[in-house]
Protein: Nickel pincer cofactor biosynthesis protein LarB
Amino acid sequence: MDLRELLEEVKNNKLDIDSALDKLKDFPSEDLGYANIDHHRQIRNGYPEVIYCEGKSDEHILGIIDKMNQKKSNILGTRCRKETYDKIKEIYPDAEYEELSKILKIQNQDIINLGKGKIVVVTGGTSDIPVADEAYYTAQFLGNKVERVYDVGVAGIHRLLNKRDIINSARVIIAVAGMEGALPSVVGGLVDVPVIAVPTSVGYGANFGGLSALLTMLNSCASGISVVNIDNGFGAGYLASMINKLD
Structure:
């Protein structure tokens, strides 16, 4: 039950004040010792808290999911191990997993499309897809129409130009690239909408684990480009969703 439902039940005399106070004891946050769950984040930001699974034990992830599930929150987990998902699936049969992007999803409420337009996710190469899919599924789970245009990097610029109709239909574009990271600059020069650049760690030695792509994107001569951290598909999907929902 979310706060709005709780207040509606009190208003309609379906729930007494003492019972409502008991339900509110874990608001705005719930301290589990190893995690402090922010149950009010959806009220403040429009989205529930997202679980970053990497570095967390299976026990801690399951504990967080249990508390969020009790609140009927939609649950999104990033960087989730397949072995962890298998354990979650045994307890929560409705859990879904996108293996390439390592995205975990448990949908307890209908996902309402509040986006004003479409988000398009573009990649330089096929090797960038795991990060791009993290952005894709994040934006989709947060209530947006999302389309993918993959493997259209600058090494064969005609591939990108052949997708101009899709790119021009976007309200926000997420451009994901490794190697030298030139794709966002090219895309930024073709469109009149915000471009969110995502550098990936894909590349040979002088790529420095994505640092070269990051610096290229930060130094882009095209206007209207913002840059998130290396391999941060989630951050790009989240930001794109916020932009897409602006009036």
Remarks:
- Residues 196 and 239 are 8 Å apart (CA to CA).
- The first helix runs from residue 3 to 11.
